[in-house]
Fold this sequence. Notes:
three-stranded parallel beta sheet, 13 helices
Amino acid sequence: MKRIFSGVQPSGNLTIGNYLGAIKQFVELQNEGDAFYCVVDLHALTVPQDPDELRKRSREIAQLYLACGVDPDKATIFLQSHVKEHAELGWLLQCVSYTGELNRMTQYKDKSEGKSAVHVGLYTYPVLMAADILLYDTTHVPVGDDQKQHIELTRDIAERFNGRYGDVLVIPEPQIQEFGARIMALDDPEKKMSKSAESEGSRIGILEPPERFRKKIMRAVTDAENEIRFDPEKKPGISNLLTIYSMFADVPVESLVERYAGQGYGTLKKDLVEVLEDKLGKIQQRFVQFDDQAELDNILRRGAEKARAVAEATLNRVKDAMGLVRFG
Ligand code: AMP
Ligand code: TRP
């Protein structure tokens, strides 16, 4: 039986990159095993957050999981801070992690570059992520390409722990799609689409209205050839649009390339806008249907209880292995 775990930070408006790279997989995987989908609010605190905004966004991400098709009767949806075992295992794992390996994390290097003051939490962030994953005896972690290095670190930490203390932790596998694991920025297809990038024109939010995203698609950077071909190296812009189109419309890229042979970029872009209007429109409608905050809190409360039962058992195993005293 697969055990699936993943998380999304409530640190901005989720983009179609988050959807295609991660959440779409959450929905598919909930039918293949025992799935835990977490809103990682503790991770969001690694950079300054407005408290009211953080509270609002944390619920919003859970509501978006539901709107995108995560079913709370199949998967466990919860907030990271509701299961205190995450922070506790995070500490224990810090004591088997090396500064050398954290220094190599590219996300840390990017986020701290040029800053005079960097919080310790940003540095130890990947160890908390390892705790998230390892607490649930996770076998599969569906994520976008940018998280690969963090999952490799998680595996290294777990293997080291098992080497020192015995066979306690399950070694997880990253589940990264071959296609769509890295959706690129619309205004600069050399960069990843990110919810925190400065440029609004770089991304489309899952909850964004058509009048806003239409312009961004029509202005998306392509190339001077005007030939529709899938070639991420030489034609990153048009290949990114083909990827987004293909994944939302559920049509293979080859079929799109055939369909648009000899046509201009404008036609492809216009049709992509229509596809997005339809698919995002449906998610947005469902988002409104799940707006009952009392019901949402019930789902999160139930989720936290289920998650805690699993997390507590793993943490106890870890404590016993490390030599901490527990009363039976
Ligand atoms: P984050 O926004 O960093 O909390 O990311 C949540 C999930 O979305 C992670 O699994 C990321 O790897 C994934 N993700 C974020 N941006 C992209 C992107 N541009 N393309 C594909 N996946 C992404
Ligand atoms: N670091 C991930 C990101 O920025 C979020 C995350 C935290 C996560 N804990 C996790 C993802 C555990 C998968 C599994 O996208």
